Amino acid sequence: MSRRRPARDTRRTVWRLGFVAVAMFAFGYALVPLYDVLCEVTGLNGKTGRAEATVVSQPVEDRWVTVEFTGTSMRGLPWEFRPAQASMRVRPGELAVALYEARNTADETVTGQAVPSVAPNRAATHFKKVECFCFSQQTLKAGETRQMPVRFVVSPELPKDVTTVTLAYSFFNIDRRSARKYGGSPAETAEAHSHEHRAQTAAGG
After folding, report:
1. Is residue 203 included in any domain, yes or no?
2. pLDDT tens profile 11-50
3. Which residues form the domain of 80?
4. Domain count along the chain
5. pTM for the whole thing?
6. Is 125 a domain residue?
7. Helical axes 190-202 vs 4-42, angle rounded to 10°
């Protein structure tokens, strides 16, 4: 009996440790979507919200906001990517449409993912995208050029001292092997960028 009891205690301890490890993994995995939801709701790190067309409110006739557009194709993505317009003036509550253009300069099909951000940071929760190419991955064939719209609304609740908002996109190659082929690194993919962003936030960066 004295020999069996330590064995049972050891097995019980192993099972407990295994359960704790699985629970910790599940919790860490769940933090990913929770973080994205938090960013969407609060505008943390300049993440913009997604809106339904029904939330478009009555435009504020006596107020204008300048929206500036920028776009960057990150290393490892063989695309040319730029906004079709440098800026536009919109009324808060007004549905507006801007265009971006991407061209695949490679001799093969490449898939990218755009990661948006808004500056100043406190304007992010007031910038609502109704339609955006960043909602899904974009695949371009060799030499293909595509114009991609973003339909958005600047909320009337935007602080009145904010008169200029910048919408920026970073386009990443979603495939690590492909990214390395075109001069990138494993850290220069949309997935890695997202994980790095979360890690910096968790560390207080």
Report:
1. no
2. 666 566 655 554 554 444 343 343 344 344 434 444 455 5
3. 49-196
4. 2
5. 0.68
6. yes
7. 100
